[in-house]
Design a protein that fits this description.
Length: about 220
């Protein structure tokens, strides 16, 4: 059974700083316990700000492995790529595993990426779109119903195909950290918190989920 907790902060900058604190604490605990921290990260301005803040933390960066939750199928260095901004914001010592979206055979690339994943991530960062999508699990796409693969490919969505982790991976992670900002997310946040299965974000069923939202995104949350 999933447990979703909500923390509301004043603005996106505060959400990013809080996200950095959460990641640093999770990394320190995992490294102390097992010598390794495995983390999957989504794209977006708030997580990039989180990584810029995180880069100043005193962590054993060489013991941190980072995978992508999703990526647009676009050329290397393209501004549409999550990786482009992620690399700029991230500490250079991390063990980074980029999604191979420039391969000619994307199906084979997805399988290869799946083989690189840890058995279960220590932490997965997710965001949510104004349509309720998370990762690149988007409304109406067949990838949402994929139950037999860890990494899938979408149809074209907002101009690009995507490679994405599937629910099978997200749900076996130790913890999910949601960072949700902006007034355009306000209609969807109560549905995420309720585990509404009619939106892709609401179908994530990892056992422990912590949602950090700014006041704009939480405007319609009761109480």
């Amino acid at each position: 059974m999933s447990t979703r907790t909500l923390e509301v902060l004043p603005d996106a900058a505060a959400v990013a700083r809080r996200g950095a604190d959460e990641v640093a604490a999770a990394a320190s605990a995992a490294i102390a316990a097992r010598g390794r921290f495995t983390f999957a990260v989504s794209g977006g301005h708030t997580p990039w700000a989180m990584f810029r803040s995180l880069a100043g933390e005193d962590l054993a960066w060489e013991a941190i492995g980072i995978w992508q939750v999703d990526e647009r199928v676009a050329p290397e260095g393209d501004p549409d790529r999550n990786l482009t901004s992620l690399v700029e914001a991230m500490h250079e010592a991390v063990d980074l595993h980029p999604m191979p979206v420039t391969d000619n055979d994307l199906e084979a690339a997805a399988d290869r990426y799946a083989a690189s994943l840890p058995g279960a991530f220590d932490l997965v960062h997710l965001g949510m779109g104004d349509d309720g999508h998370t990762a690149s699990l988007v409304p109406g796409d067949p990838v949402v119903e994929m139950v037999d693969r860890d990494v899938g490919l979408t149809l074209e969505y907002r101009g690009r195909r995507r490679m994405t982790l599937t629910y099978r991976v997200l749900d076996r992670s130790g913890r999910v950290l949601w960072l949700v900002t902006g007034e355009d997310k306000a209609p969807m946040l109560p549905r995420l918190l309720a585990g509404d299965p009619t939106i892709p974000a609401g179908r994530v069923s990892a056992r422990e989920q912590h949602v950090v939202a700014d006041r704009a995104a939480a405007a319609l949350v009761a109480g």
